[in-house]
Each structure stands twice: as C-alpha cells, then as structure tokens.
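Minutes, project check-in
Item: structure for the 242-residue chain
Input as provided by the requester:
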Amino acid sequence: MNAHAKPANPIIFDFVEHRPFDGLAEEKPALALAALRDAARKGDVPVSFWSTFLRAEKRKTDPARLLRAIGGRLASLPPVALSSIAYPVAEWLQGLDERLFGELAPVFDRLWDPLIAALPLRDDDRKRRVDSSWANDALNAPVGKLASLLMNDPASKGCELGQGFPNAWTNRHEELLALPGDMRRHALVMLGFQITWLVAIAPEWTTAHLLPVVTRKATTATRCGTAYCGRRGRRAGLFTST
C-alpha cells in the first residue's frame, strides 16, 4: 500500500488521503482494518500503516469483537508478511496484557503459532556494541516482549514449590528458546530475569532447558546472551562452575 498511490478502494482510501492514517486508526478502527485487509488480499502489507494501527492508544481498550477481528486478520497473513510487522504485533499483544488470558485467550491462541512460524524469517541478529546490552535488546525485541507477556499468564501463578508449571506455558517458552540466533538469546535473558522463581517452581524444567546453555562451551556471543541467566542462576544454586 503506497500512501501516495491511487487507492484500490476509493471509499476507504479516499478518507485516508484526506486524513492522516493515525486519525483513522484512532477514530475509525473498523474502517482502518478494512483498508488493511483489502491491501493484504492484494498482497500488500504496509508496515508503517500496520504499525500506526496497532500502536494506536485505543487498541488497548478496543471491544473484544474488534480485537478478535484484528487477531484473525494478523493470523491469516503469510509468514513473511507477519514477520515484517512482528514488532508492532508483539507490542499490541503486550498492551492487551491480562485480557489475553481471559476473554481474549482465543486471540492469543490463534496468533501464537503463526507468530512462531514467522519470527525465524526475521533478521534480528546484530553486531554487538559496547554501549548496548542484551537486557535492553531483549526487552525491546518481539521475542522478549512475548516472553515477558507469558510471565503474566495467571496459569503460571500460585504454583507450589517444585510443582512445575502447566505444560502449555512451558511449551510456549520452549518454542521461543528454539528460535534461531539472537531471538533465542532474547528468550534466555527474559527467563534469566526470573531464574530464582523458575528454579523454585520447576527445578527439573529449568535445569533441562537453561543449564545446558549456560554450562556448555559456547561462543562469546552466546555467553553474553546467557550471562544474565547464568549469574542469577548460580546465585540461586542452580548452576555450578565448570
């Protein structure tokens, strides 16, 4: 979708031409979604317009019916297209927070698998910079946002010591850990932030999925990516020096 090109749907896009899309996204979200849907059917997924739409302040308080429509449209995008807007999608999900584990659980469930399929198509690897950190990277990356969102799942709360977490919850974390390159490291860092809690509730799962990464011989980049997990894990008594 080119904002300056002649619109394919004159009714929808004539409004866009005479009014910034951010205004449309805020005040006429159904119309904005219809425009994005129309473009997607023609093979066009405009990153800037999707970002504007998903980041609109009113998306956090949209009625469930509209949110289900948005989630359905996103889930139906081809993996390559969804990968190009993974960042605003992750932000949108994070903004919905606890609603995703209640009335909007079907939205989260439907969108999860397409996102996991789309994320490996992104090129999120980068060269290390002295003035940056893996913590900042993880907190601001799609995978980091998804991992953080999972930490708010009520299903993970109230578990007894040593009881373990629900399989559906750990399975999703395992899917994030199975992603390639820096995305895997982002997942590790977010788990590292919660290492003491993870050890207390699910020591076997935590040992199985985090210990091998921390203790095996690894590249410098991998050691940097797991440093948060390793340092906090040793303090919790999980990891031993090798």
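Outcome recorded: The chain has 15 helices and no strands.
No further action items on this chain.
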